[in-house]
Amino acid sequence: MNSLWIVVLSLICFVISLYQILIGESAIGMSFLIFTFIGIFTSGILSGAKQPHMHNLLLLFFVNLFAYTLFSLLSYYPYLTTGQFFIYPDQYHFYEHGEKLGHFGSLSEIYRACFIDRIHLENEAAHFLHGSIAFFANKYFNGNSVLLQIIHTSFWGILIGLFIYKILHFYVPNAKAFKYSLLYSLLSPVFYYSPWILRDIHVALLYSAGIYIMHTRFSVLRLTILMLLAYITLEFRLQHGVFYVIFIGIYVFFRGKTHAYYRVILPITLIVFVFSLSLIITALWPKIEFVFRNFQSYSSYTEARVGEGFGAYLYTLPPGIKHFSIAIYSQISQFPPWVGIEKSETFVQGLIGSIELISSMFWSYVFLFLLLSMFWGEQRLPKLLLFLLVVAFIFLVSNTANMNIRRLVGIYPIIYTAFVYVKETLPQKKKRQIDVFTKTAYMLLVAIYLQLSITNLT
C-alpha cells in the first residue's frame, strides 16, 4: 500500500511541475522537479538500502512536500495582495540582497562577493543561497520572485522531517518513528517558520543533520561532514556555528572512542580544530565584532521590550536564576497562543495565526510533558540522549538575551527525541498521569493569563 501511495504522489509531483512549466512558471516548476529528485535521493541515502525505511522516508517526504507547499502558497498570498510582508520584516533584507546578487554576471561573482569580499559582513551563506536561486531563475527560467524564494526556504523544512525520522528510529520502532516524525513535521514550530525568507529553517536543517550524525557509527568521513556542516552553519549564523562545534566534540567522544585509531584521531581532530578556528577567527573578525555589537544591542532591546508582566519580572531575577527561568519560560511563553489570530487583519492572516496557535500548543505540551516526566516520572535517558539534552538546555540558557523561538528550533530535535523516548518507555499509568497533569497545567496557565488580562482591563 505504501508503494502505491509513493508512486501516485510521485506522478502528482511530476504533473504539477509540468503544469507550472507550461503556464510560464518554469522556475517554480523546475524547482518542484529538483525538490522531488533531492527528496528521493536523500531518502535513499538515509534508508541505508533498507526497504521499510525507504517506504517510510518517501511517504514522509511526499506528505510533507504537499503540506509545506500549500502553506507556502498560503503565506505568499498576503504579499501577493499587498506587495508587503505582513510579518517578519527581516524578509525584505534577505529577499532584496538575493535579488541584487541574482543580477550578477556569474555564480563565481556571487561567491566572491559573499565569501571573499564579504560585502554583507554576516549571513553570507544565506545571501549566497538566495542570490544563486535568483541567478539561475533569471538566467535560465522566468525570473526570480518572492514565491520562488519562499518555496526554496520551505524545502529545507521538508528535509528536516527525514532526519527526525532517522534520529527517532534509534530509540523507537519504525512505525512509531514515522508517526512522531510526521507529527513533528506538521505540528511543531518548524512547520510554522518554514515559509518565511529567513535563516532559521536552514540552520534547523543543518542542526538536524548534525544531531543525526552524532547517533551514527564513527567514521572519518562522517567527522569531516560534521566539520563541514559546522562551517556552513557558521556562515548562516555565527552564534549557531560556534555552538555547533560542541557536536563535533560529542561525536568524537561518544562514537570515536570505539574506533581502532581513536588515539590518533583525537589529537588530529584537536589540531585541525584549533588550526581551523584560528583561520576562521582571522577571516571573520570584522563579522564577529559586528555581530557582537548587534548582540549587545539586542540584549538591551530584549530586556527593554518585555515591558510589564511575568516575562519582565524574570529579567529582574539574579543572574543564573534569571537565565534558568527565562529558558524554561521561553518554551511555554507564547501567551496567548492565539495572538497571531488576534492580530490578524484578513482571513488568510487568521489562518496563518491558527497554524501558529497549533505549533505553540503542540510545543508547549512536548516541553511540559518532558519537564514533568524528568521530575516526576523518574525516567532514565540513554547516556548520549541525556548528554544532548543537557547541551540543548545550555543552548537555551545561552540564548536568553535573544530569546526568539525561531532562533531556537535548531536544538528542538533533541528535546523532541527525549520527549518521544520518555513517552514510549514510561509505564502506562504514569504516562496517563503526566499527560493529564501536563494538559491541566497548560490550561491553568492560559486561565491565569485570561484572569490577568481581565483584571488589567478593569
Can you walk me through this structure?
The protein has 458 residues and is mainly alpha-helical. It has three domains: 1-195, no CATH class; 199-305, no CATH class; 306-458, no CATH class. Helices cover 79% and strands 0% of the residues. It has helices at residues 2-22, 26-47, 51-82, 90-101, 107-116, 124-140, 146-168, 174-187, 189-193, 200-214, 220-236, 238-254, 262-305, 310-314, 321-330, 339-343, 347-376, 383-398, 405-408, 412-425, 428-457. Helix 1 packs parallel to helix 3, helix 7 (146-168) packs parallel to helix 10 (200-214) and helix 18 packs across helix 20 (412-425). The radius of gyration is 22 Å and the shape is globular.
| Fraction in beta strands | under 5%
Count of domain modules: 3
Q: What's the β-strand tally?
A: 0
Q: Gyration radius, to the nearest Å?
A: 22 Å
Major sheet: size, sense and barrel closure? none
Count up the helices. 21
Average pLDDT, all residues:
84
One letter per element, helices H and strands E, the order comes to HHHHHHHHHHHHHHHHHHHHH
> Helicity, in percent?
over 70%
Distance N terminus to C terminus?
59 Å
Shape: globular
Poorly predicted runs are 295-309
Q: Helix/strand-derived class?
A: mainly alpha
In short:
This protein has 458 residues and is mostly helical. Helix content is 79%, strand content 0%. The chain starts with a helix and ends with a helix.
